[in-house]
Amino acid sequence: MNGRDTQIDEIGAARFLTPEVTKEALGLVKMGKIYPLGQMLEPGIPQLPHHPPFVRTPYSTPYQSQQRWRERRTKNEPGPAAERLEINTHTGTHIDGLGHWSNLNRTYGGLDARENFTEKGLAHLGLEHMPPIVTRGVLLDIARLKGVEMLAGGTAITVQDLQTFLQQNGLSLRRGDVALIRTGWSQLWAKRDPRYCSSEPGVGREASVWLADQGIVALGADTMAVDVDPPEDPAYPRIGHQILLVERGVHLIENMILEELAKNEVYEFLFILVVPKLKGGTAFPVEPVAII
User: Fold this and answer.
1) What is the pLDDT of residue 127?
2) Strands 117-118 and 121-122
3) Which of the residues 70, 77, 274, 280 could staple to 126 if both were Cys, CB 3.0 to 4.6 A apart?
4) Model's pTM, two decimal places?
5) Residue pair 204/156 in contact by the 8 Å Cβ criterion
6) Cα separation of 238 and 59, whole Å?
7) Distance CA 128, CA 277 (A)
8) Distance of alpha carbon 144 from alpha carbon 268, whole angstroms
9) Is omega for the bond preceding 53 within 30 degrees of 0, making it cis?
10) pLDDT of residue 193
């Protein structure tokens, strides 16, 4: 590992999350209204075919707990309950860490993926290094721009689409922002429609590069993987993951709910997302919120 790589855990677009950026974003709150942006976690939610299903089982029931307390001769017989989860960290609404993706055995910062991926998790770029995101969020409602309830699977969102929506609504992206793209695809999630995991609209090469050039720290979408699928070029699947995660250090937030924001035409807001410090983690479910 070269000298540049020794500081890799602290690098990425998250370096744009300065106190000034956060302070300015806090000024967007006028009403105190909160919009939850995360999907419900429960058995049966959409998962990619190669991902294990989400499993929830009881760990202890109130009755079992009461029995233990009775053995201690308590009089109020408390009855706590708990559960056990079996979950792929890329389940539901989740954020991808920079170490999630590699291309040609290289992860973000030029790290050798064969050395970075270990049995104990990521040696570098794990979620424990990711700071809380408290910044300005911008919704780009591309479904609305196109005049449809939902974009078709395989629709590549272009730079012109993004620029046109921003211009029509008097907005621009700034360094430190989180950009959220609405395609309407979450309607399929709600219906458990198998199409949700078989294809999707999303960004391709040029849009990914342009978004990274704006200095965003994360890109979120109401789809399973943010990328357009099928890809624009079959030889380069998940090109958005390659450009944003591997090359530019921009986090991805997948499987979001953006319908209420879109319905109320809320396109600029305070965005908050706090990531559990899973040591060596490549991703984890989150509950991002928008506040106006």
Assistant:
1) 95
2) antiparallel
3) 280
4) 0.93
5) yes
6) 38
7) 4
8) 16
9) no
10) 95
